[in-house]
Amino acid sequence: MARDEYLFTSESVTEGHPDKIADQISDAVLDAIIGQDPTGRVACECLLTTGLVVVAGEITTSCYVDIPRIARDTIRDVGYTRAKFGFDYETCGIIAAIDEQSSDIAMGVDAL
User: Fold this and answer.
1) Distance of CA 68 to CAs 32, 52, 103, Å?
2) What is the pLDDT of residues 39-93, one digit of tens each?
3) How far apart are CA 80 and CA 94, in angstroms?
4) Which of 49-79 are b and which e, b meaning 16 or more Cβ less than 10 Å from the residue's Cβ?
5) Predicted local distance difference test score (pLDDT) of residue 3
6) pTM
7) Residue boundaries of the structural domains of the chain
8) Confidence band (pLDDT; 50, 70, 90) for 112?
9) β-strands 52-60, 93-99: how paired?
10) What class is the 18-107 domain?
11) What does the pLDDT look like over 11-37, one tens digit per residue?
12) Which of 26, 43, 78, 105 is the most buried (most CB within 10 A)?
């Protein structure tokens, strides 16, 4: 007779963890766009590693937002203001790789 056993694991991170900062940057990009263009569409992801932020995804909007500035402001607000903290909002590299939303997705969303 087989026994059904499962092992579940999870990770819980706190403020200041790179995953939390990444979420805050993505949220800040969304907030900035929706604040200027309520019909904007944002599928934005972010990752952080030592000294580097990558913001990527698909965004369709009629407005302009300065994604590197939003990322730096968010990192500063979290408290990473000196290199000795392991991350510095002024000197970290920021890559923004944003495309327009694919026409297939737009067609499906527009039909709603």
Assistant:
1) 12, 11, 26
2) 999 999 999 998 999 999 999 999 999 999 999 999 999 999 998 888 899 999 9
3) 15
4) eeeebbbebbbbbeeebebeebbbebbeebe
5) 77
6) 0.82
7) 18-107
8) low
9) parallel
10) alpha beta
11) 877 777 888 999 999 999 999 999 999
12) 26
Distance CA 9, CA 108 (A): 36
CA 46 from centre of chain: 3
Count of CB atoms situated within 10 Å of the CB of 22: 19
Tokens 């937002």 belong to which residue? 65
CA 87 and chain centroid, separation: 17
Phi, psi of 80 (to 5 degrees): -85, 85
pLDDT value at position 74? 97
Torsional class of 16: left (φ above 0), alpha (ψ -120 to 50), beta (otherwise): left
Place of tokens 């972010």: 46
